[in-house]
Amino acid sequence: MLNVLMIDDDIELCQMVREYLSAEDIGIQTVHDGEEGAKLALAGQADLVILDVMMPRINGFDTLRLIRASSQIPVIMLTAKGDEIDRIIGLELGADDYLAKPFNPRELVARLRAIQRRTGQRNQPAGETLLVGNIIIHPAERMIAWRGQALDITSSEYSLLEVLIRNAGRVVSKADLFEQALGRAESRYDRSIDVHISNLRAKLGLLDDGRSPIQTVRGVGYQLIPGE
């Protein structure tokens, strides 16, 4: 069973989500304070976190910082409808995905299941270690090493980079990255892929020739150049 921790000060919303997820055979624990939520997220009992941005005392961004300081547990941020800045900040801080309030519970379940499918792959036979240039990918552990060093990346960043690695040297469209890495269709004005790519570029650094290993092909998508 998937076990979810929801951190949100909206008690009525938490109750509604609890009822819906329970009917979908998803376990859920709710907490209404960011600091307490971060402690529970780091306790290792939850598989995934649903985190609201707007909370008293410690907001969702600061809560995410506390979590990301020592854990890469998948996090879905809940943002205000139409607030693109909050969505981008959340993704830049390491959120795996986001939903704008108010949201359809079915969409929340779809996002949860998509992340569950991706992260659940570490418990499945996933093929042999793959070496591409300076990159080594260990599918069974969902771990990627760049120039001999394991990358500290989120679940969504791993999935995105894995797709690019398996298509190294070829351009992968944003639509394909949404489908294959995030498990959902591309939607208009959704910049999730762009922000995840920006985070990955910062973590990978530059090739010897000064280029980023992830190249943008304008109007098409992204291409991985693994280096030698």
TrEMBL record:
User: At what positions is 4-aspartylphosphate found?
Assistant: 52
Q: Which residues bind DNA?
A: 127-226
Task: Output this protein's name.
Answer: DNA-binding response regulator
What InterPro entries does this protein map onto?
CheY-like_superfamily (IPR011006), CpxR-like_REC (IPR058124), OmpR/PhoB-type_DNA-bd (IPR001867), Sig_transdc_resp-reg_C-effctor (IPR016032), Sig_transdc_resp-reg_receiver (IPR001789), WalR-like (IPR039420), WH-like_DNA-bd_sf (IPR036388)
One GO CC annotation = protein-DNA complex
Q: Which SMART domains match?
A: REC, Trans_reg_C
Give start and end of each Response regulatory domain. Answer: 3-116
In terms of superkingdom, the source organism counts as Bacteria
GO molecular function: any one?
Answer: phosphorelay response regulator activity
Compartment annotation: Cytoplasm
Q: What is its main location?
A: cytoplasm
What are the coiled-coil residue ranges? none
The processes (GO biological process) annotated in the record are:
regulation of DNA-templated transcription
What does the UniProt keyword field contain?
Answer: Cytoplasm, DNA-binding, Phosphoprotein, Transcription, Transcription regulation, Two-component regulatory system
Q: Which CDD domains match?
A: REC_OmpR_CpxR, trans_reg_C
- Domain spans labelled OmpR/PhoB-type: 127-226
Q: Does the keyword Cell inner membrane apply?
A: no
